[in-house]
Every structure is written in structure tokens, then in C-alpha cells.
Amino acid sequence: MTAAAASSSGRRGQRLIEGEFPLTKDDFRQIADIAYNDAGIDLAESKASLVYSRLAKRLRALRLESFQSYCSLLLRDEGTSERQEMVAALTTNVTRFFREPHHFEHLKTHVLPPLVSAARSGAPVRIWSAACSSGEEPYSIALAILSVMPDAASLNVRVLASDIDPNVLQKGEAGIYSDAATASIPGDVRKRWFKPVDGRDGKSWRVGEEMRRLVAFRKLNLIGAWPMRGPFHAIFCRNALIYFKEATQVDIWCRFAPLMVPGGRLYIGHSERVFGDAAPLFVNEAITTYRRKDTAA
Question: Known catalytic residue: 238?
Fold first, then answer.
């Protein structure tokens, strides 16, 4: 066997996925390293099929012939924007209005009522949607607020909506959702706080001015610097940290606590729990709902 043939055979032996674009162990390692360093995403080789299915679309869009060429692009200076596209492709933006409705019911019955009189006296009310995707979560929070304080848009009440993916942030800022996407919103609520619009895909609904004034969208990497100071009365961070190593999850839980008011609430995903060094900072109050201890620093 010639040296070239041996090298080719060796590279084929490293393949994790055969297909239109063979994915090798070396390709996967480079992609996993970038995902971890840029966004904290932890990719084990068991996720090779997911990585292939998500990123093969990027290779076709860029008209690249191999994952090796794709990795070379990612590592070049001009690959910065594609690194963002890669992270966006690898994260699952599964969201809908009032997903896990018990959180919004808890917000309406336990968090917001005590804040109404203070808000109407000029005190700030702040809630953070820390992985807001295309906006359904922060707008659901806004709807919960408006159900308790219909005049909230004229008060010092705000929802910070952040995400690492600029593409979903654009969708959230546009605030236009299909008839099917808003089906989980009660009809009278949708009629009051949304405006019907006709588009190429049929009837849609645009977020009304009151809701839009409550929500501010910002690009934010949860493993990077956080410019906001809070304090927040509630933080929603649901089904985002499942992509991170356990140590990173604990670090982010710990970083939340000082940004919350004493007794502030933290809402997490249905398969998540607060653990490690972060556990003493919170009290488990309800299903995937935590209250910050008054002594948290």
C-alpha cells in the first residue's frame, strides 16, 4: 500500500458518519471545541449524528465539499459569522407560547401581585428571559404581567429577552407569529394584545404596542460577560443549560443569585435541577421553580 493510500485509509478509519459529507473524528473534535469555547455547548461523540444533520445544511448553503473545508472556514478570521451560524444550528430552539404553563401561573399568582402597588408608585419591576429564542417566552411573560397589571406598559416594568442567536432575536423583535403558533393563547387575550395581519402564509398576529414596550431583546452569551445589574424579580432560564457541562451549569446558577432580589424566583426546564454549589442559594418552591434565599449574596 502506498503512503497516500495508507493515509486515505487511515482518514476513512476515523470517520464517525458516512454520507454526503463524511464526518471524521478530527472534524468533530474541532467543531466540538469551537462550540464549547464560543458558547459552552458540551458535545460528546454520541452527538455525532445530530451534529451531522444540523451542519450538513450549512455545508450545502456554503457550497462546501467536506467538513474539513467547513472546519477550515470556522478557524479563519472571516469565519466569525459562520461560527455564530454553527452555534445557532446546534442549539434547539423549541419554544411556544406558555410552554410549561405552571410557570406562568406561578408568576401570576405568587410573584406579580405583591409588586403591583410598588410598580404603580414608580418602583421598577424586572424579569429576565435568559434564553428567549424567537420571543414566545418573553411575550408570554409580558402577557402574564398584563393580566395582572393592564397598565404595565406605562409603568417601570420591563422584560429582558436575551439569546446567543441573532437570527431568533430578529424574529422576536419582529413579533409576528402564525395563527397556529398563537393557538395556545386564549382567544380574548390574543384579540386584546395582538393585531391580526395577513401574510403570504395566511393569517398571522403581530405583537401589540403594549407588549412590545415591555420587552427588550438583547444578544447575550450566557458563558460570557453580563452587562446588566438587575435586580430581577424572576429569571426564566429553561432548557438552555442542558447543553452545558455540569460545572458550567452550576456556575451560571450561582451567577444568577446576586442579580435577583431576595426571594426572587428562578424558573428552569422540566428536566433540569439546581445542584452543586448553587443549591444552597435557592429553595425549591414548586415544580422546577426556585426561590432565592434572602441570605444569597
Answer: no
Distance in angstroms (rounded) separating the CA atoms of residues 261 and 292:
8
**Which amino acid is present at 275?**
F
Query: How far are the Cα atoms of 82, 124, 132 from residue 292, in angstroms, in the given order?
Result: 38, 19, 21
Active-site hit among 163, 165, 238, 251 = 163
What does DSSP say about strands 15-17 and 194-199: parallel, antiparallel, or unpaired? unpaired
Shared domain check, 28 and 139: no
Residue that has been written with the C-alpha cell 429553595 in this structure: 283
The H or E element that residue 76 is part of is none
- Number of structural domains in the chain: 2
Helix (H, G, I), strand (E, B) or coil at 209: helix
Whichever domain contains 60, its CATH number is 1.10.155.10
End residue of a domain, out of 44, 69, 90: 90
Q: Which residues pair with 205 in a beta bridge?
A: 177, 196
Q: Which candidate in 11, 15, 29, 54 is catalytic?
A: 54
Handedness of CA 173, 41, 35, 54 (dihedral sign): negative
163 belongs to the catalytic site:
yes
Q: In terms of Cα–Cα distance, which of 52, 60, 51 is closest to 91?
A: 51
CATH of the domain at 273: 3.40.50.150
Q: Kindly report, residue by residue over 47-102, the tens digit of the pLDDT.
A: 899 899 999 999 999 999 999 999 999 999 888 889 989 988 888 667 899 999 99
Structural domain span for residue 57: 3-90
> How do strand 282-286 and strand 289-292 relate by DSSP bridges?
antiparallel
Amino acid identity at 180 = A
Indicate the pTM of the whole model: 0.85
CA dihedral (246, 252, 255, 257) positive or negative: negative
Residues 70 and 28 in one domain: yes
What are residue 17's phi and psi, to 5 degrees?
Answer: -135, 130
